[in-house]
Write a structure and sequence with these properties.
Helices cover 36% and strands 19% of the residues. The protein contains 23 helices and 21 strands. It is elongated, with a radius of gyration of 37 Å.
Length: 626
């Protein structure tokens, strides 16, 4: 007989009801918890989550302001902006950056420099900002990417303004250029002022007037969907364009000067003596600044760095040269200021000078000497022996004290950064370097050699002080700042330094006449440029030794390698009776100032004074001119 168990229906019913009650209680607790959470979200945390929701829905996009233009005195544009297509990525909207870059590379060509710069931005910039992957897309590339744009989340095709220098290398050493903001610059920048900005002024006026040219960033509040796509613009705050700079530079004169130097290394400064306004600021060789805007490739940059002609050096601002015999223009005036000095007293020049009991000979540039010369003859013929003796008579401290007010050994204060000071030597200057001052150093300072160094800008500024009858003006490149929208103009007021302290200002007239005869007397070292001039020119030639010549040896220009030949200098102003321009010309390894540097100054003077662009007839200089 089978043993079949009998079910306890009552017990099973009780167990089922108990389980059902537990489940019901759990469900009620869950429902209650959900209600509490909903109440918390809708009531207590309403404002917080509403803000987060708005932040997800509304994206602020910075709008770059147009950078201010840079123009010459006649309105010729030297630096401008032009529209380009750029490919930009918003990193926070990208899940797999490597895959995205690979896919984009199949549509638009990306080189190693593009990828390197982009990854650098990834490390340095916020992930919510648009980072440039590739700039300067062609219209074909932009159209090709626009077709496939919906397949690339977080990637935008934008039209941006990029800096452009239409005259390429013309004036690059005073203009400078803009470049990408690097890591060091980013640490010190005002984040609000540069929100969404990629570039900053690196050199020249672009750097010195960065705050003026920059403008103010604008914003667009854009409504987006869950995928980050823009739906509509809710609010727009327009950017404010940077202000325009109008320079005192004459682009035609600048081009004339650069062409006159040609392939030679050198520098030229031309300025208005009465105002200090710079008309030409030349350093050669030049280079094209445009590749630096988007990031020059390493090969091209190394090519510039390794170029033996050093095009990146700003010779006009930072080239420090021995002034050579150009210093005689100022020491001649210093001689007139000496008590008891007789400018008509003849001094013998046998072609050499020595300091007893030392047998070392300080040679004159002219073999056999100039014979008996007075101050006028010494300046006109550039007699070294006369100025050797004058230097010993004055002593180094007196020379230093006289030259300092002309701006030697100090920055001129021109309105671009990183100006060099040159060197105005003295015993104290050498002692500070743990060295002794020797009497022979005083002798060679009298002809602008030794430790005495000056920049082309300092030489032009000093010469302008003679032209301006003892008043030296602060050199200035910018003469007006103009608001692009309102056309409100801020004119830059010329600034004057303290008047050159002289016992008798008539001495300037005497020295200016001496300098005029340098150019217009048939014995003058610059007579080659002055004999047919339609106006009077005051000037002084100079030849600065690059390589020393040992005692007993002679100097042969033809036998000397080009890099070791003398530098050629010429400083001048014209017209003498009403100076319109003061010019300093330096031609590195050019040989003689009268034949290499002076003709360039004459061309520039004709352009400024006569408005002529023709090449003036210049008398061939003598082979042994200074």
């Amino acid at each position: 007989m089978l043993n079949i168990p009998i079910k306890d229906h009552f017990r099973e019913t009780r167990l089922f009801n108990a389980r059902l009650s537990v489940i019901g209680v759990i469900i009620l607790i869950l429902i209650f918890s959900l209600l509490l959470r909903l109440i918390y979200l809708q009531v207590w945390a309403h404002r917080h989550y509403e803000t987060l929701s708005q932040a997800n829905r509304i994206k602020p996009i910075p709008l770059q302001p147009p950078r201010g233009l840079i123009l010459d005195r006649n309105g010729v544009i030297l630096a401008q902006n032009y529209p380009v297509y750029t490919l930009e990525i918003i990193p926070e909207q990208v899940d797999d950056m490597n895959s995205l870059l690979e896919e984009i590379g199949q549509v638009v060509k990306l080189n190693d420099t593009d990828l390197k710069n982009f990854r650098k931005q990834l490390r340095e910039r916020p992930r919510f900002e648009n980072l440039v992957l590739r700039s300067h897309l062609t219209e074909e590339e932009a159209a090709r990417f626009a077709v496939k744009r919906p397949y690339f989340n977080g990637v935008e095709l934008e039209a941006r303004l990029r800096r452009h220098y239409p005259l390429t290398g013309l004036g690059v050493h005073f203009l400078g250029y803009v470049g990408r903001i690097n890591e060091q610059e980013a640490e010190h920048l005002d984040k609000a002022a540069y929100r969404g900005m990629e570039h900053i002024g690196k050199l020249g006026l672009e750097a010195s007037y960065e705050k003026v040219l920059l403008g103010r960033v604008g914003f667009e509040n854009v409504e987006t969907n869950a995928h980050g796509r823009s739906l509509r613009i809710l609010e727009r705050i327009a950017p404010v364009a940077g202000k325009n700079l109008y320079l005192s530079i004459d682009a035609k004169l600048q081009a004339l000067a650069e062409q006159a130097l040609g392939q030679r290394r050198g520098a030229i400064i031309a300025l208005e003596p009465a105002t200090g306004a710079i008309l030409a600021f030349v350093s050669t060789p030049t280079y094209d600044p445009n590749p630096f805007v988007s990031g020059i490739d390493p090969t091209s940059y190394q090519g510039l760095l390794n170029d033996p002609n050093k095009p990146l050096i700003n010779r006009a601002l930072n080239g420090q040269y021995a002034p050579g015999s150009t210093i005689k223009a100022f020491l001649g005036l210093a001689a007139l200021e000496l008590d008891g000095f007789d400018p008509n007293r003849p001094v013998a020049c046998p072609g050499w000078f020595s300091l007893p009991p030392n047998a070392h000979l300080f040679r004159d540039w002219k073999k056999g000497g100039h014979g008996a010369v007075n101050l006028h003859d010494a300046v006109v013929q550039s007699c070294d022996v006369y100025f050797y003796k004058l230097a010993v008579t004055m002593n180094i401290e007196a020379m230093k004290n006289f030259l300092a007010p002309f701006g030697f050994g100090a920055k001129t204060g021109v309105d671009i950064f990183n100006e060099s000071e040159g060197i105005l030597p003295s015993p104290e200057w050498k002692a500070a370097r743990g060295q002794r001052w020797y009497p022979g150093e005083t002798v060679i300072t009298g002809i602008g050699q030794g430790s005495l160094l000056a920049t082309p800008l300092q030489l032009a500024s000093a010469m302008s002080a003679l032209a301006n009858h003892g008043i030296r003006m602060k050199p200035q490149l910018v003469h007006a700042i103009v608001d692009a929208k309102t056309q409100a103009t801020q004119n830059i007021t010329p600034e004057a330094y303290a008047e050159i302290p002289l016992k008798d200002k008539h001495h300037i007239d005497i020295e200016v006449q001496n300098l005029t005869d340098v150019v217009h007397s048939n014995r003058g070292t610059a007579y080659g440029i002055g004999y047919n001039a339609a106006y009077k020119i005051a000037g002084k030639t100079g030849t600065a030794q690059v390589k020393s010549v040992a005692q007993g040896q002679s100097y042969s220009e033809k036998a000397t390698p080009e890099r070791y030949r003398d530098h050629a200098l010429f400083i001048s102003f014209a017209p003498v009776n009403d100076p319109k321009v003061a010019i300093a010309v330096i031609v590195e390894n050019g040989g003689h100032g009268g034949s290499a540097a002076a003709p360039i100054a004459r061309k520039m003077m004709d352009h400024v004074i006569l408005g002529s662009e023709s090449t003036p007839v210049v008398k061939p200089a003598e082979e042994n001119d200074e």
